[in-house]
Amino acid sequence: MRIGFDMSSLRLNRWSDYGVRFLFGGLVTVLTGVLANRYGPGVAGLFLAFPAIFPAGATLIEKHEKEKKRQAGWDGTVRGRMAASVDAAGAAMGSVGLIGFALVVWRFLPAHSAPAILVLAGAAWLATSILVWWIRKAL
Q1: CA Rg, the chain, in Å?
Q2: How many structural domains comprise the chain?
Q3: Less CB within 10 Å around the terminal CB: N or C of the chain?
């Protein structure tokens, strides 16, 4: 399966699909706030690393792929699962990139300006994510 960016897929989503994503993301955020109040920021910080809209996004990707195949007269179950798994792999690679982001913020934020560190941390996230993607592609 080739990985790419296709703007035409934006037309496949209905407003309710976006609503599900935002609702799920908001619920995870509220849950994190509740955990922070009850158990402190250390515990709640673990939940901030959870990609809040990933589960909704993965199910929508699977649904859209199945619908496309069904319209062509095929059973799209396998294709839908494959597309969702590719999305999950990308999310995992991006999550590994969050380690680079966290290390830069942890090391440099106490002594430096927040905006500059956030730009540097964002670059570390991007570089780490791309490196993980290249390693995965080479295997």
Answers
A1: 18
A2: 1
A3: C
In angstroms, rounded to a whole number, what is the distance separating the alpha carbons of residues 58 and 61? 5
Nearest 5 degrees, angle CA 15-CA 32-CA 113?
A: 95
- Please give the residue range of the domain that contains residue 76: 7-138
Residue 15 within any structural domain of the chain: yes
Band (9; pLDDT cuts 50, 70, 90): low
> Domain for residue 54, yes or no?
yes
Angle at alpha carbon of residue 113, lines to 110 and 117, rounded to 5°: 85
Looking at residue 53, the DSSP 8-state letter turns out to be T
| Residue 78, token pair as written in the block | 């396998």
Hey, which bits of the chain come out as E strands? none
User: Does any domain span residue 89?
Assistant: yes
Given a contact cutoff of 8 angstroms between Cβ atoms, the answer to whether 25 and 51 are in contact is: no
Tell me which residue has tokens 């799209």: 76
In three-state secondary structure terms, 51 is: coil
For residue 74, being part of any structural domain is answered with yes
**Cα 12 to Cα 85, 86, 94, distances in angstroms:** 19, 18, 24
